[in-house]
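User: Here's a protein and a ligand (zinc ion). What would the complex look like?
Assistant: Let me lay out the input and then the predicted complex.
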Amino acid sequence: MTNQPQAKYRKDYTAPEFTITDIDLTFDLYDEETKVTAVSKVLKQGNSTTLTLEGEHMALAGLQINGEDWSDYEVTSTQLHIHQLPNEFELTVVTDINPSANTALEGLYKSGGAFCTQCEAEGFRRITYFLDRPDVLAKYTTTVIADKAANPFLLSNGNRIDEGELENGRHWVKWSDPHPKPSYLFALVAGQFDVLRDKFVTKSGRNVELEIYVDQGNLDRAPHAMTSLINAMKWDEERFGLEYDLDIYMIVAVDFFNMGAMENKGLNIFNSKYVLANDQTATDTDYLGIEAVIGHEYFHNWTGNRITCRDWFQLSLKEGLTVFRDQEFSSDLGSRAVNRINNVRIIRGPQFAEDASPMSHPIRPDKVIEMNNFYTLTVYEKGSEVIRMIHTLLGEEGFQKGMKLYVERHDGTAATCDDFVAAMEDASGVDLTQFRLWYSQSGTPVVTANTAYDAAAKTFTLTLSQKTEPTLDQPNKQVLHIPMNVELYSPDGEVIPMIIEGKAVGNVLDFTQDTQQFVFENVEQEPILSLLREFSAPVKLGYHSKDEDLVFLMNQAQNEFARWDAGQTLLAKYLRQNIAACQANDEMALPQSVLDAFKGILLSESLEPAFIAEMLTLPSQNEVAGWFKPVDVDAIAKALGFIKRTIAAELVDELTAMYHSLKQDKYSIEHAAIGQRALRNVCLSYLAVTDEGESLVSAQYESANNMTDTMAAMSAANQAQLGCRESLMKDFSDKWSHDGLVMDKWFMLQGTNPADNALDVIKQTMSHPTFSLKNPNRTRSLIGAFFAQNPVNFHAIDGSGYQFASEILVTLNESNPQVASRLIDPLLKYRQYDDTRQNLIRVELEKLAGLDNLAKDLYEKINKALEA
Ligand code: TRP
Ligand code: ZN
């Protein structure tokens, strides 16, 4: 690295010296040389007469002030400084950019045949020199000019206000967005598409045109996205009272996209993975993912667009809140318990792992080198947990009052996380002073619980202590305000009213001290404690429950999440024991009582199939890895395999009966049908490791009439390494090679293949005609899955996985640093492993650190990891 990338600090925020209130953009689109003319109205706000604009990867082709050529400026590789400026002026900047050469997929680029943009976080500066920061809000007018045959559709934000034809087969369309917005919400699309159209009438009677643009030939895969959009618009009106504010809402699906989707005002751009679905191509998980992401981007219209972020350190203001909103949307439309379980799995698995890694940061980071590195599980998912805790403390009514006040105060502005918390506090009267530490403190708190029952006094004492271990970014930790949702049961299953100091208390205890005692009165018998119900705070829990109590909670807790969590705690205990046994070369074992408990769940007639499926799903290898240091990947895999085989052998008859009883003739994406398939396919994943595995799996693959069942068969064959795996894989690839999105499922199976020769197969697979390292979806499916979800092979003790990782990262560092920077995460966690693996990984990280063109993205992560 010749120039050391510079960090920015949250504490250094200052208001901009100038602002831009209006911008008129003209794009003359050509694949290799697009000319962008930007005419802005600029106002001085501070004292400086020099305007500094951000800009990179482009050529400055003209600069005028009030229509006159201006020569008093300097341009560097990242900025344009314009000197001796008046207080108010019109600025014209002309830039030349090359969309075809843009493999980073930030700014203006080509995705397949279409032009599209991605400006969040700092991509607009690859289009023109600008005040590319979220606290500069301008009204945009955009004219798009392009060849008409290749690009019949020319789209941008807001409303279409004019259009016309030009010579040489070119045409133009002019768009105007009446809502002032930051540059990161700008979007442009030009290309040839099929369009699915519908309409929505808002609660106040506004007519909104809905348009979903997909590649030609894909129209039959767009209806689910449209239904999801309409459901989201309705839901936001009903639950949050928030209505859409333009006459048109467009969604464009593109194949080359770095993330899931982007909430550009009135013109969302989506990874096609989160739009396209039909029975033959998409799994139930895909359908639900589409609903969630369509909802998420739509909900940003208020939480993100109307009220945006003052600076990028505030990212969780829009992301944590919008994830919370999309989770609530999915929970209101589907199963609340299943949604909660899956969100908690993400926190306890990858988010806790991030907290424990060198990249550990608070949901509102203090220091950033490359902003793209902070679109993280911590900012998004833990950020959503922080919003959920506020919701828990205020209740739905208080929370909605807070939302209303937040919108009243900050609509049309760029706000901060503190503004949000202040609105919640002011509207509800709940004191959130100590709670605010969740925004500034990184790491995962560990809450330890001890209990004592006093039969004579009829009191039950719960003693809670909290401790957050130091993280690389923050050596000292403070005591947090932790909402602890608890419940007490009598042995006959009755809920015991909770009374403290003579007063009835609700389920949520305010745990605000280092160590705190809660004494429950009038407790007639030693109770069974249900702790951290609903996962009311993103903490690790240390509490020793007896097996009987966990089994009791699995069967009798009032709340489904608590039942699931008790099952997971029981499994966790025996996973740990068996991992230890495995390491000591002892025999592995699982008590009959545990097997009986899971049999009882499987046979329960009162539980929903979707929920039973979750109860029977073992923790992931990665989640288990987070419990240990050093991590023993082989022992974890063996213990998980043992538990799976033991349950399968013990319950084989019940699993088989359940499997057959859940067969469906017709495919439907009703929630009940999804749940039945989920349970049936969990049964299959167990049965795959029994003697019947081979025949059941092949038969399901042959007879499947939908992608969920097809993939369940393939995954079972892959995980259990069945003999039929080869032929199923071949059949699938013969059938789907023309379709990259569908092939991603196949690439993912190659990436997660547990076979010893997986890496060789993966290397061969890279020359599959459908694979390309230029496409982020393909890369994540094959390569990303290998790095992050194939622990035994990735961490092979000969270092082959690590060497392969660093070769790939060298390539992606140049072509697409954002994707490279997401893939590298498993390597950053090298200190969690044994010395041999640590050394092997460090060698690769050091090699990467030495690259002379190392991108900021990788530089930031590798440096943190090596300095740790
Ligand atoms: N704001 C987007 C969302 O959460 C995500 C996003 C951020 C993004 N940066 C991006 C998407 C870069 C694509 C590329 O919905
Ligand atoms: Zn978002």
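Summary: Residues 377-410 form the longest helix (34 residues).
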